[in-house]
Amino acid sequence: MKLSRLALLSVFALASAPSWAESVVTVYSIDGLHDGDNSWYQVQFDAFTKATGITVRYVEGGGGVVVERLAKERTNPQADVLVTAPPFIQRAAAEKLLANFNTDAASAIPDANNLYSPLVKNYLSFIYNSKLLKTAPARWQDLLDGKFKNKLQYSTPGQAAHGAAVQLQAFHGVARQ
User: Which UniProt keywords apply (predicted)?
Assistant: First the structure.
């Protein structure tokens, strides 16, 4: 957890360099990560403000929404830090919406590059009610069985970043089977 906090604080510090004159750093983030005063985000923001004197301005939206906002603000950027999920971070990189940064902390984070650093690894899993289903599906193909018709639920890919990631993983997973 210390590494994650150090990495996040380093990213904030480096990404916020242009905004230091204002003493405000603006964070655009996917929804659902900042859920109140005692959230992980709030603890990190408070620690960052205490360590630097820089206030964090937080703007939240869906994964696609925050990247679209970056695209619209291309000529007048408002965000200093972007927190999103696949495939939206890759879209932001492909559309050249991200600035290069270098930090020693990023070298300790797997898959970091000079545009973004992953903070977590996402693991795709099934959640099911064992009272209603004795055996969990073992492969994506198993979900095509008629007994699952109208009984599956997942995040809507067009609305939620993790939903899009699940859809992409499903397509690639089925292709390999």
Answer: Periplasm, Signal, Transport
